[in-house]
Amino acid sequence: MDGLELTHGECVRLLRSPERGREAIVAFDGRTPVPRACLLLDAGDVLIPTGPDSGLVRVAALRPVSLEFTDRDKDGRLRWTVRGIGLARPMTGLDVPHPLPRSTVLAAVPDAFRNGVRVVVARYRGNRPVIPAPRAEE
To answer: pLDDT tens, 75-98?
Structure first.
C-alpha cells in the first residue's frame, strides 16, 4: 500500500490514543490470524487478556507473534495500519496496570486479566494512506 511510512514511536503513539484498548489481528507462531482484544502498554508492549481461559497462554508462550492494528474514520475509510512483531510470554499480575485504563474494547471481556499473554514487541511499522488533493475545476 502506498502511503506515508510511520516510525516505531509514531506507531506507539497512534496505538495508545484515544484509548489503550484496541482490536488486533494476532497470529502466534505463524498460525491462522485471529481477532483479539488487546491493551497497549506505555512502551508499546501488548497485553492480550484471555479471562478464565488459559489455553492461549499454553499455545503462545515463548513463541513469535505478529500483530496488525487498523484504524478507520466514522465513514469507514482507512486512517492508518500498524504491524508489529514480538515474542509472547505468560502475563503476570505485575504486567497489568493498576488502575486499568478505561477501554470499551476490553469491557466486554469478563474477568479479562485473570489469564493472558504479554507480547514484548520488537518493532512496529505502519503507514497512512496518502489522499490526493482534489483536482481544480476548470
So the answer is: 999 999 999 999 999 999 899 888
DSSP 75: T
Domain holding 94: CATH number? Answer: 2.30.110.10
Q: Whole-model pTM? A: 0.86
Range of the domain at 36: 4-126
- Gap between the Cα atoms of 12 and 40, Å rounded: 8
Task: Give yes or no for a cis peptide into 18 (omega within 30° of 0).
Answer: yes
Q: How far apart (Å, rounded) are the C-alpha atoms in residues 1 and 58?
A: 35
**Would 136 be classed as within a structural domain?**
no
| Tally of domains within the chain | 1
- Dist. CA 12–CA 117, nearest whole Å: 19
* Beta-strand relationship, 46-49 and 4-6: unpaired
134 within domain boundaries = no
